[in-house]
Design brief:
Helix 3 runs antiparallel to helix 8. The strands form 2 sheets. Strands 3, 4, 5, 6, 7, 8, 9 and 10 form an 8-stranded antiparallel sheet that branches. A two-stranded antiparallel ribbon has the order 1-2. It is of the alpha+beta class and 273 residues long. A hairpin with a 3-residue loop joins strand 8 and strand 9. It is 30% helix and 23% strand. The two termini are 24 Å apart. It is globular, with a radius of gyration of 21 Å. The protein has a single domain, classed as Naphthalene 1,2-dioxygenase Alpha Subunit, Chain A, domain 1 (Alpha-Beta Complex), CATH 3.90.380.10. The protein contains 8 helices and 10 strands. Bound molecules: fe (ii) ion.
């Protein structure tokens, strides 16, 4: 099926965006399946996947208890402290493996582990739903301020301290909290180099972009950048470790690595499809 070009900038000469000698519908553009969900654009180039609505339904259903579909429309991207990029000298899959488990928390993230303790983590997993990770209790206060970000209106009052972090197959890592949401997505540049992109959203434009919350946004930005930076060393070490002649394929902890093992199954199943 061919697609129709939406825009043809300057095609008729500078500042002439249309041309009667060019038909937007006969450009040979190939239509690809795409879907926008939580401000992320998902693309399935080779049409080998189920409809995205079905793909995402299990995660949508899981998160309905925290934020209703209507509440999700409240997310606003922060233009000042909404984005950072880290470069990892490793395969993108190591970043996902790492995100799926909390095993490394006390040693790699001692600061984070002081208010989001390993003992409070629970696994999130389940085939064939291609998301897995961790839920946890986040003890407050995380920030040096009496000011608090506004929360999602229907987030349950008795679960205000719950946060969930899941990797959504293939290359997106998500985090939801009562007062912010992030998507940490991976750009695999080659088999041993990955660009990591963090996008942070808040509840409403005031929280996301006003001066009033700027200091709080800065603290949250620095918190997440610090945590993600701490992971670089170990995921790059995992890449180096694969080169060892004594590497045996690795071992999983039957108690701690279950969500990571799910990710391995998704990769294996997709490679063997
Ligand atoms: Fe980590």
């Amino acid at each position: 099926m061919s697609g129709k070009l939406i825009a043809t900038p300057h095609i008729g000469g500078m500042n002439k965006h249309n041309c009667n000698k060019f038909s937007k519908s006969k450009s040979g553009l190939k239509e690809v399946r795409s879907y926008i969900w939580l401000d992320l654009i998902f693309v399935n180039l080779n049409k080998n996947e189920i409809d995205f609505e079905k793909y995402i339904k299990p995660l949508n259903d899981r998160w309905k208890k925290f934020w209703s579909l209507k509440d999700r429309d409240l997310i606003v991207y922060s233009k000042d402290y909404g984005y950072f990029n880290l470069n990892a000298k490793c395969n993108w899959k190591f970043a996902i493996e790492n995100y799926c488990e909390s095993y490394h928390l006390p040693w790699v993230h001692p600061g984070l582990n002081s208010y989001s303790k390993i003992d409070d983590h629970y696994h999130i997993q389940g085939l064939p739903n291609r998301f897995a990770g961790q839920g946890t209790v986040v003890y407050n206060p995380r920030f040096k301020s009496n000011l608090k970000f506004p929360s999602f209106p229907n987030w349950p009052k008795d679960q205000e301290q719950i946060a969930e972090y899941v990797a959504l197959f293939p290359n997106v890592m998500l985090g939801i909290h009562k007062d912010h949401f992030y998507a940490y997505w991976l750009e695999p540049v080659n088999n041993e180099y990955t660009k990591e992109h963090m996008e942070i959203y808040y509840v409403g434009n005031e929280a996301a972009n006003s001066k009033k919350f700027k200091s709080l946004r800065k603290q949250n930005f620095e918190l997440w950048k610090g945590v993600q930076f701490e992971d670089l060393n170990i995921i790059e070490g995992m890449q180096d470790g694969r080169k060892s002649p004594s590497y045996n394929g690795g071992n999983f902890s039957p108690a701690m690595d279950n969500p990571t093992h799910h990710f391995h199954k998704w990769v294996a199943n997709n490679i063997m499809k």
